[in-house]
Amino acid sequence: MDELKSLCKGFTTIGLSDMGAVRLMNRREVKYTVHRRVLPLILKRIVNDYHILEMERQHIMPYRSVYFDTRDYRLYTSHQNGKLNR
């Protein structure tokens, strides 16, 4: 974790108040899962091309998501099949 904190300090920071200037409406969000050993290599390669969000002097924020569904994952399956209102 210390290595990640150190690498984050190399990024240009952006605050929540600056986010209005960033074009969010035309963004494309893609998520990847990477092994913890690979993340420092990726961060080193993108440090000059990306900003990092800073809130209360923090760059790494805890994130937790709770997903509610039926035992047979009906809501997930509906989502995967294109159903919008579930």
Rg calc? 17 Å
Outline the low-pLDDT stretches: none
> Given the structure, what is the number of helices?
3
Largest sheet: 2 strands, parallel
Query: How many distinct beta strands?
Result: 2
Outline: extended
| Percent of residues in beta strands | 5-15%
Write the layout of secondary structure elements.
Elements: H1 2-8, E1 12-14, H2 39-46, E2 51-53, H3 74-80
Parallel strand pairs: 1-2
Helix pairs in contact: 1-2
Compact summary:
The chain is α+β, with helices and mostly antiparallel strands and 86 residues long. 26% of the residues lie in helices and 7% in strands.
Tell me what you see in this structure:
- The protein has helices at 2-8, 39-46, 74-80, and strands at residues 12-14, 51-53.
- The protein is α+β, with helices and mostly antiparallel strands.
- Helix 1 (2-8) runs parallel beside helix 2.
- It starts with a helix and ends in a 6-residue tail after the last helix.
Question: Keywords for this structure?
Answer:
single chain; 86 residues; alpha+beta; two-stranded parallel sheet; 3 helices; 7% strand; extended
